[in-house]
Design brief:
Blueprint (H helix, E strand, L loop, with lengths): L9 E3 L8 H16 L7 E4 L1 H10 L6 H16 L12 E7 L9 E5 L5 H9 L2 H18 L5 H15 L9 H19 L7 H15 L3 H10 L7 E7 L10 E8 L6 E9 L3 H6 L5 E2 L3 H4 L1 H18 L3 E8 L2 E9 L4 H13 L5 H6 L3 H7 L3 E2 L6 E5 L1 E4 L2 E7 L2 H9 L4 E5 L7 H6 L2 E4 L7 H9 L2 E4 L5 E3 L4 E4 L2 E4 L3 E5 L4 E4 L4 E2 L2 H6 L12 H16 L3 E5 L3 H9 L5 E5 L9 H9 L3 H25 L4 E5 L12 H13 L5 H13 L11 H6 L3 H18 L5 E6 L5 H22 L6 E6 L2 H5 L1 H4 L5 E4 L1 H9 L3 H7 L1 H6 L16 H15 L4 E4 L7 H10 L3 E4 L4 H20 L1
Parallel strand pairs: 14-15, 15-16, 16-17, 24-25, 24-31, 25-26, 26-27, 27-28, 28-29, 29-30, 30-31
Antiparallel strand pairs: 1-2, 2-5, 3-4, 3-5, 6-7, 6-9, 7-8, 9-10, 11-23, 12-22, 13-17, 14-21, 18-19, 19-20, 21-22
Helix pairs in contact: 4-5, 5-7, 6-7, 13-20, 15-36, 20-36, 21-23, 22-23, 23-27, 24-25, 27-28, 35-36
Length: 902
């Protein structure tokens, strides 16, 4: 973006507020908000996301930025009574990233900016603590070297481990000032050797380089991967927060911690978080040292604990949500370093939403916006069978719930490699860092021997909905030897382990799973509101009930048999949006369809159709009975021919071998000749759908007759069949008119024969671009449209789904061409624009035109919002996704109503 000369690029914490997240990022906006609330926030200022965008677009910072930073830095120095890098009493600052949407650990931070060989002695003198000063200096060189100068962080870690080993200690707090002074010298040599330059001694140079590093961190591989995973736009940029340092590493009366106003794993109220004495914030987040529970702070420093509890209540009441808080205590003085609406597990999201309604902090509409279909889907995953025989390896902190089983892997690369080969894996690390993100995404779950509920592993896993167990201290993880030891038991890479993110338990081998209680609730086997009802199920019930009251979109199921239909009905389906009749001909009936397709004479064809008719009728009777009183959309036969014909290669080999033995089968020879005649290079674009019905006389008539006779039988049995007949793959209104004329004639014949009046509507599936573009014409002959977005996506993009997903989709996702697969979430700009056009044109011709979607997008949360927006009447999806679609349909309606009221 171009630079505006009048643009303001720097805001003091006193100038912003929480509504400026686009400009100040989440961290900066919330620091400003806490400052406005009068909470103890160290003074500082924020460089805006607009400055970052200019830098990323042009390769250099805005011309006005340096002058604005200098002015705000001078004001900060005046407020603090000391200057940045001052030799006898230095002002030190932190430089931290802060995008609009939380991206924990994905971008860069540098603490203790302003220290140098000269000012470190001044800091030691002012603090009266030489060890503290040298500890702060080694941290600066380590973070600056890794973050700004791109030095391998393992080199610093190895040097630190060697220093501890030489002293025969296990934690860095046991290193004294002399040890740390030697470590600083070694760190500086690492920087000089690896970066090709000395560690900068000028404080302002440190500051400017750190700001640029934060800007650059927006486009690191791990940040881009995280944004794709979380569907965060790539053009937002990050703000940079420059804050005066407060120190948690001044001794036992100092420390740092992370707190949650409620448990982010369960949603329960209480004191949740981690605290670490004599440490800086990165120690807690990185999980390098094991923390103590936040409740222990009451014993360690009661005054700070009481003040923190008061502030936590203030923030939760103010933000009306679970708050995630970072704080530091400097010699008994509490400082607030960050707050944000905290990431929480799916179960916690539902519980917290209903708790806040009960407290009067939010209403039901807002509660509905606090949860998502993705979270509901997570709650429907299975859990471990508590009655199963298990071998317990150990127990850690339950950081993110779920039941995960997989082969043990000890690095991110192996996790990705094995996952791509179809293996389910559990990523095991001492602690994770941002470079482990791709492995975390590829894994079923994450297990660490260090860290707590606020460690990197825990926070990222909760955000992704991954099962995670942290801080399992009894597990000795040896990543170099690729093994984990627990007592006498050794788990090698490739051994299967099971982890329970709800209890923190780690098991050897595969533990069997049982259905989720939420699924049992949807299936009617658990009743919310009973005395013993699970609290989570009760919360889900309340929010689903509200979603059903407010949603406009109806939700149907894709179901091809009575069993699936009944299950879909239990899940809340309001009909069937897609019954794929070709699925009724798989298995034993496949040969019957084969005989029909290959029939040479009218007699053979009539014989094949007569055999199929009663089978079809029986299927439809069962289906209509299961969905009695609800609409059922039956799609006429739409098989790519290769699904019902023998494989041409196998048949050719069979015939060739038979001919070589001189015992060729006449039927096989005839079959091979027919298969060659009908063979297609791209069956998805060949003889299928309406084309098949027009080419094979009597095929669609047989199906319509079976549908009509089944409906008449159900009606005469006092049932209430509501049947819709859908013609597939129509590209022109003439195709639909011919089939409809034949169908109307068959229905009239059945009505006359049974003495029953049938109200069967006839419509079409819109799955070709031409059908969408000529929707005004097609609507003249169609009573309803159902968008087949799977095929429409294939034909709009020119993709053969079965081929491209395995060949180049991974590269497209990695390169950012796709934020998400267009088969997973609808492509609003391309496919979506055709859907919108067809809706408008179809309804212009026929105002009462019923509109739905039956592609897999019908159960995708983001796509459901789009379908609400363009005015569809219903979405249809697989039975398991019906609750997700119901919830998102409610959220879409509540969101639209909220936008209208504003």
């Amino acid at each position: 973006m171009s630079e505006n000369k009048d643009q303001k690029f720097v805001y003091d914490f006193t100038e912003g507020n929480r509504d400026l997240k686009d400009l100040l990022g989440g961290k900066g906006a919330n620091l400003a908000e806490m400052t406005n609330l009068g909470l103890p926030v160290p003074p500082g200022f924020t460089i805006t996301t607009e400055a970052c965008k200019v830098y990323l677009d042009s390769g250099s910072a805005p011309a006005a930025l340096r002058e604005e930073v200098s002015a705000h830095l001078a004001a900060l120095e005046a407020k603090m009574g000391k200057k940045l890098g001052q030799s006898d009493d230095p002002l030190l600052v932190s430089v931290r990233s802060g995008a609009k949407f939380s991206m924990p650990g994905m971008m860069d931070t540098v603490l203790n900016i302003g220290l140098s060989d000269e000012s470190v002695t001044g800091l030691a003198s002012q603090a009266g603590n030489e060890r503290f000063a040298w500890d702060s200096y080694r941290r600066l060189i380590q973070m600056f070297g890794k973050t700004v100068l791109d030095v391998d962080g393992e080199l610093f870690e190895d040097a630190l481990d060697e220093a501890k080993a030489a002293k025969k200690v296990t934690v860095d707090t046991d290193l004294d000032a002399a040890d740390l002074k030697k470590l600083v010298t070694r760190f500086k040599k690492i920087v000089a050797n690896q970066a090709g330059r000395e560690f900068p001694q000028d404080a302002r140079e440190q500051l400017d380089l750190a700001v640029e590093a934060v800007f650059n961190s927006w486009n690191t591989d791990r940040a881009k991967l995280y944004r794709r995973q979380e569907r965060i736009p790539s053009d937002l940029g990050t703000a940079v927060n420059i804050c005066s340092m407060v120190f948690g590493n001044l001794g036992p009366d100092s420390g740092t911690g992370v707190a949650f106003t409620r448990d982010p794993a369960s949603g329960h109220a209480g004191v949740y978080g981690d605290y670490l004495q004599n440490a800086q914030g990165e120690d807690v987040v990185a999980g390098i040292r094991n923390t103590v529970p936040l409740a222990d702070l009451e014993t360690i420093d009661k005054a700070s604990y009481d003040q923190l509890m008061t502030i936590m209540t203030t923030l939760e009441t103010h933000y009306k949500d679970l708050c995630d808080i970072e704080f530091t205590i400097e010699r008994g003085q509490l400082w607030m370093l960050q707050t944000r609406v905290g990431k929480r597990t799916a179960g916690a999201a539902f519980r917290i939403a209903t708790q806040l309604v009960d407290q009067g902090l939010i209403d039901e509409a807002e509660a509905l916006q606090r949860v998502s279909g993705h979270q509901l889907a997570q709650l429907m995953f299975p859990r471990f069978d508590e009655g199963a025989k298990t071998t317990l390896l150990g127990r850690g902190i339950a950081a993110s719930p779920g039941a995960a089983v997989g082969k043990a892997v000890f690095d991110s690369y192996t996790a990705v490699k094995w996952s791509r080969s179809g293996e389910k894996v559990i990523l095991i690390r001492r602690e994770t860092n941002p470079d482990d993100l791709d492995g975390m995404i590829a894994s079923e779950g994450i297990l660490t021997s260090r860290g707590g509920k606020t460690s990197h592993a825990a926070v990222v896993a909760r955000g992704m909905g991954k099962t995670c167990v942290c801080g399992a201290e009894e597990l000795d993880v040896d990543t170099k030897r690729r093994r984990m030891t627990v007592g006498e038991t050794v788990i090698e890479e490739g051994d299967v382990v099971s982890i329970d993110g709800s209890t923190g338990k780690v098991y050897l081998g595969e533990v069997p799973v049982v259905p989720s209680p939420v699924v049992e609730y949807f299936e009617g086997r658990m009743h919310a509101g009973a005395d013993d009802a699970d609290e989570l199920v009760a919360a889900v019930h309340r929010i689903m009930a509200y979603a059903d009251r407010v949603r406009r979109l109806r939700v149907r199921a894709n179901a091809d048999n009575a069993e699936d239909a009944l299950r879909a009905r239990r899940f809340g389906a309001q009909g069937i949006g897609l019954c794929r009749t070709e699925h009724m001909f798989l298995g034993e009936r496949r040969e019957m369809v084969e005989r029909l397709i290959l029939a040479d004479t009218d007699g053979e064809r009539e014989q094949a159709l007569s055999a199929l008719l009663p089978l079809q009728k029986k299927d439809f009777i069962e289906l209509f009975e299961a969905m009695d009183g609800l609409p059922v959309t039956v799609r006429l036969l739409d098989p790519p021919l290769h699904e019902f014909l023998p494989d041409i290669t196998e048949l050719s080999v069979r015939v060739a071998l038979a001919e070589s033995r001189k015992d060729a089968n006449e039927n096989d020879l005839r079959l091979l000749q027919a298969v060659h005649k009908l063979h297609e290079q791209n069956p998805m674009l060949g003889l299928r759908g309406v084309r098949l019905g027009l080419v094979i006389p009597g095929l669609f008539a047989m199906q319509v007759r079976a549908i009509a006779e089944a409906a008449a039988e159900r009606k005469n049995a006092k049932g209430d069949p509501r049947v819709e007949i859908m013609i597939p793959l129509v590209g022109t209104v003439q195709e639909l008119e011919i089939v409809r004329e034949e169908a109307d004639q068959v229905i009239a014949e059945v009505e006359a024969a049974t003495g029953t009046t049938l109200k069967l509507s006839i419509g079409t599936m819109i799955e070709l671009p031409r059908a969408a573009l000529t929707a005004a014409q097609i609507a003249e002959a169609a009573q309803f449209f159902s968008f087949g977005t799977n095929d429409l996506t294939q034909t709009v993009w020119g993709f053969s789904r079965d081929d491209v997903e395995a060949s180049f989709f991974t590269a497209y996702l990695e390169k950012g061409i796709f934020g998400v697969s267009p088969f997973e979430t609808i492509d609003k700009d391309g496919v979506g624009s055709l859907v919108r056009h067809a809706v408008e044109q179809g309804r212009a011709t026929r105002p009462d035109l019923k509109l739905g979607v039956c592609g897999e997008h019908g159960g995708d949360p983001e796509s459901v919002h789009f379908f609400h927006e363009v005015g569809l009447d219903y979405v249809s999806c697989s039975p398991f996704r019906i609750p997700v679609a119901r919830l998102e349909a409610g959220r879409a309606a509540a969101e639209a109503k909220g936008s209208d009221s504003r």
